[in-house]
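Supplementary notes (optional reading)

For those who missed the lab, this is the record we used. Protein: HicB-like antitoxin of toxin-antitoxin system domain-containing protein. Length: 97 residues.
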Amino acid sequence: MKYRPSDFHWNIRKVLNWMGQREIMIEIVDLDDCVSFGRTVKDAKNDLEEALYQWIRKNGIDQLPEVRETAQLIYIEKEMEKEEFDRINEEIKEMKL
């Protein structure tokens, strides 16, 4: 079976990228770290196919949740605020990489 991003529920959110510019993030619910980004929703949607493919390569197809026979849900989350962006960057600076 070929899996598609539309087989799963999504979280969509406007976030700030590393340069402080706004972009769209789409995350597949129930698949940790399966995310895509784009300047527009269309761009992020197009890249989600590749994100799902890479997630399956890394984690294995047997780790996918069962595909639901119901309508896809798309959750629109609150836009990232500057304070959250700053806090995340401070946490990253404190990491010992």
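If you only remember one thing from this example: The longest strand covers residues 10-16.
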